[in-house]
What we know:
By secondary structure, this protein is of the alpha/beta class. It has helices at 12-32, 66-76, 96-104, 120-126, 133-138, 148-152, 176-181, 191-201, 226-233, 250-266, 268-276, 302-309, 327-330, 350-362, 364-374, 381-384, 393-402, 418-431, 438-457, and strands spanning 56-61, 86-91, 111-114, 163-164, 168-175, 203-204, 210-215, 293-299, 315-318, 334-337, 340-342, 407-408. The relative contact order is 0.19.
Amino acid sequence: MRSMTRVRGSGRPRRALIFASVAASAAMLTACGGAGGGGAAKDGTAAAAPNKDDKLTLTVYSKFTSREFDIVTKGLNNLKAKFPNIEIKHEGNQDDDKLTSSIRGGNPPDVAISFFTDNLGAWCSTGSFIDLKPYIERDKIDINTIPDAVRSYTEFGGKRCAMPMLADVYGFYVNTDMLKAAGLSKAPETTTELFEYTKKLTQFNPDGSIKVAGFLPNMPFYENQAQIWAPNFGATWLDKDGKSNLAASPEWKEMFNFQKKLIDFYGHDKLEQFKAGLGDEYSADNAFQKGKIAMTYDGEYREAFIRDQAPDLKFDTAPPPVLDSKKEQRYGGAFTTGTIIAIPKGVKNPGASWELVKQMSLDTPTLVELSNGLKNLPSTNESLHDPGLKVTPQFQKFLDMFSSGKLLPNPSTNIGDAHLKAVNDFAERWQAGNEPDLEAGLKKVDAQINDELAQKRGGG
């Protein structure tokens, strides 16, 4: 999955635009009944699989490009071992906007691969992706082979309309040469240690500007996003009634107060000046890879970028540091998300589409092959422990986090990523000093999110 996928800090504004288009198109699908066709037979059972020698073509939309496109195409073509006459037409660089338009126009791809798990609520609630339950039950698939957190971000409202195709976990990267020079031997484990490390690792120029940041606390920037920080503080998004409850949460307050403590150490203006001179997250000029930042949040996929773009960099990985009082409960866990694969509404041969979805989400050799090529985490328990998985010491840390039982994903909602955008927008105002009252500011965010949730529940 190019693992520069879903969360990707530098891409957040685009994600908001994508969701707006998805939501609008989904609403139109609901209003006009959408494209014809469906996923199961008329009696509610799963559509039949193709015969072994049937000749047909399955079109797949994904956002993969370049090297990663070739790796995924190879994985898709593994289906030929079972169905030698099925041709796969893989169309890369296709975003969710294009996918929604194709469903609305009655010409969807046979299989959809999406980086944006936060759109799943819209896909499921409108029927844009078909319910996979009949297929799972018919084929007697044990869905528990998928870890709990991954299962949660591939279903909505009890409806499974997607399957996972690999996963991401967001840990902590440290420059080991810089740590050693500062007399530090391992990555920080708590927020107290993170603050102390930040002070020791930061270097200032003679004029007081930042030369090297021990840790950059600005949100959103690279993978500094509220949803990636939140699990490390034990902060959750919704209460038992499904409403936003940030202002009443001590964990969210702890998180933002800690962020502000780091901002104040540097000075907001100095951070903005420093940040403006840093390279693009996915280029060879990535600030961590260039030695401009000593510690950073990032996904397991960053290792592949480092090996390719900064092979001389000495680095290590670790679980992200957590709030001191949450160390026993949370350390070793992290935020998780992943690429999803689904069958759009209106496909002509859903039985064949399901065979490809099953191949890419449950077949252990395929998942191991994809993981080794893309450096993402395989998303079933069997593939996680397969001896063919190529594991470095740095990658093993992410496998350990994935198996920790302490993963937290974003909640699936029918407002897509609107709640994430609201909190990250607040973080920008908070760090700049434009939200002087934390609780009052979070109450406004709660009201904004709850208003959007209520509109969707009311059919708006």
